[in-house]
Amino acid sequence: MKGSRVESIEEARNEYKKLLEEGWEKTYRFNSYFKKNGY
Questions:
Q1: Source organism's superkingdom (predicted)?
Q2: What's the pTM value of the predicted model, to 2 decimals?
């Protein structure tokens, strides 16, 4: 039981990391897009 719990935590952490990275990428593109257009 304990082992599987740790695994699920690791999985959640990896998913969170992935989401964060994707979010940052989108935010960065969004900001650079607006800066190019002078907003």
A1: Bacteria
A2: 0.47
